[in-house]
Amino acid sequence: VQLQASGGGSVHPGGYLTLSCAASGSSFSHSVVAWYRQAPGKQRALVAYIISAGTPTYAESVKGRFTISRDNAKNSVYLQMSSLKPEDTAVYYCTTFPPTGSWGQGTEFTVSS
Question: Which of 13, 42, 65, 111 has the most CB atoms around its CB within 10 Å?
């Protein structure tokens, strides 16, 4: 499964944004898909993942603010983000979970006033 993230940009603190992850490959509906992020000067970290049946798991830092969802018919996974904070600024990647080392380009967004 090949995955590509999109939807980044710039938002103000407290704002919201939705990232999209488009998948190619016939096994997408059976795959666990995750969002990771890498903030400037920091290591890449798990944000959330979602299993094929749709059950999500979140990092503590985003719980209650981010929602991961998937549409298997559209081969897509989404990350809805609200109450954004400057510390959410990062490059966001979608990948199968656990990661295989193939990260793609990622999509970057900045939270700043």
Answer: 111
pLDDT tens by residue, 9-67? 999 999 999 999 999 877 888 999 999 999 999 999 999 999 988 899 999 999 999 99
How far is the C-alpha of 58 from the C-alpha of 49, rounded, in Å? 7
State phi, psi for 28 to the nearest 5 degrees: -55, -45
What does the DSSP assignment read for 25-83? STTGGG--EEEEEE-TTS--EEEEEE-TT--EEE-TTTTTTEEEEEEGGGTEEEEEE-S
